[in-house]
Amino acid sequence: MKLCTCKGIRTCSSCNPNKIKIENQNCIVCYFCPKISKIVKENCISDLKCEEFHKVNIELNGIILIENFLTEDDKNYLLGGICSNSWVDSQSGRRKQDFGPKVNFKKRKINLTKFQGLPEYIERFVNRFSDIPELKDFNPVELCNLEYNPTRGASIDPHFDDFWLWGERLVTINVQSSTYLTFTPGFPDMFDESSQAFFSSVCSENHENMGNNCAVSIKVPLPEGSLVIVSGDARHKWMHAVSAADVQSTRIASTLRELSMEFTENDRELSRKLIDLSLTFNGQPVN
Ligand SMILES: O=C(O)CCC(=O)C(=O)O
Ligand SMILES: [Fe+2]
């Protein structure tokens, strides 16, 4: 009998004990250096001289990383709020708490009956967004808290967040423990010639070892207490993932999403209602 909730190709340590070994067979790994916003070959997060590292001829535009967004007090306050609600099992060994409308992405339908707003504990952080120029007019209509436990092999497979409902900016507060957000090219055709040339040179160099799994991945460090905004190319051209091998201790992250322009323009009244409801900060988990 299956003890987990994984479906399709998704796995956790319970349904696939070899999971971490398989993920580690991955491709060429580069790192995003938040100090220079460039891709480098070595991991230089703790090294102040990262300009000296060999830069790689690709770019990952659309990442903003604000280190130390949370103080130690903020972290404890946020964890206190999150831990006052229970978790439900999700895919790939994760557990989640969701505050937002119920969505059927296939049918492009949303249902507001259960949603009473974002939780009270997130209000002070959403208020602080007005100090961040890149979050101008960011009105979140969903908060999803995820827990990644290494003993469950928790991860999230490479994916794009939905484009019909969710807007340009994905905002994640890294509440507990540090990890990497790993980006892989979603549609190689969307990249300029020099990036495509880089992808194919990497692929041919590594062909023997990698077979069909040929890919480049870029790891963006997500230190505990940081806030990351994913938009632009990082949202539209690159898929993102959290690999099980990068979850060293229990990770808790809170992702906030805004409505897309398309959705807002198609139904202004419903969009206004959703935003107003969210910002009552009166909600309970809907899962
Ligand atoms: O855990 C994270 O930082 C990312 C989660 C994510 O990509 C998602 O929920 O769509
Ligand atoms: Fe995502």
From TrEMBL:
Entry protein name: Alpha ketoglutarate dependent dioxygenase ABH4
Domain called Fe2OG dioxygenase: residue spans: 137-260
Single biological process term from Gene Ontology: demethylation
Sequence similarity: Belongs to the iron/ascorbate-dependent oxidoreductase family.
GO molecular function: demethylase activity; dioxygenase activity; metal ion binding
Organism for this UniProt entry: Schmidtea mediterranea
InterPro entries: AlkB-like_sf, ALKBH4, Oxoglu/Fe-dep_dioxygenase_dom
Domain of life: Eukaryota
Cofactor(s), names only, from the UniProt record: Fe(2+)
Keywords per UniProt: Dioxygenase, Iron, Metal-binding, Oxidoreductase
